[in-house]
Amino acid sequence: MDTFEYKTITVKTSRAMFQASTIDTESLDATLNKLGKEGWELVSTSHMAKDGGYKTYLNLFLKRKLN
Fold it and tell me: 21 vs 2, 34, 38, 45, 61, CA distance in Å?
């Protein structure tokens, strides 16, 4: 049976009032590509808002097979 380890990354997104959240995709891509080379696989994401939606975060869930 395969065994995995898991990692959660939380990224703060910027948001102006009444506008969609934005994220630095170049930086996020670089991070995910680096983790991919280390064997991590992105398996899920979730969006979270706090303080009435004025602070928003993106949670990234990754897994990697243990040898």
Answer: 37, 24, 29, 15, 19
